[in-house]
Amino acid sequence: MTIPDPVQDLLSTATSLAERDNAAWLATADVHKPKIALVTCCDARIQPDEVLGSQPGEVFTIRCLGNHVPFGGNGGERAALEYAIHHLGVRDIVVLGHAKCGAMGAVATQGADVLGGCLSELADLLNTVPREASEEDTVYIDRLARANVKFQAQRLFSLGIDIDAPDELRVHGLFIDLGKANVEHCCQH
Ligand SMILES: [Zn+2]
Q: What is the pLDDT of residues 86-108, one digit of tens each?
């Protein structure tokens, strides 16, 4: 019996891509100068270059559950953001949330201590965006996810990252509903 191997399947596709003369991809080999840093969810359906229309090398992507960069601990998300700002010279940060987010669903239905507590800092969000009586799960989860984009965009300034020129830093909030193929601009700071 042959056991399915998704990694081999994916690698075979990657080889095909390498054999193509993908100029945009090859041009990134020696230069890492992204235009923006993107903080978005781990959700496999979110493909940054597809959403933003960007080319390889343009988007420094930080993936974290619920596009949430924790204050505490030694998580790599915060370090990655600091690296993008200090070492890569990024001045525009985009927080991208999405509809039908599993992380938001877990928080909405089980509370902020779910998933080992990695989203516990969302307790404040739950308090400010309570569920309305008779509101369906799917509706509330998307409403919470939209509010979370603004929440995360605002709190990035409070992460304690030492920024040389804070006035130059812009944080944008975007939300995508893949079912509607629609990207909303939620906020800018
Ligand atoms: Zn998600």
A: 899 999 999 999 999 999 999 99
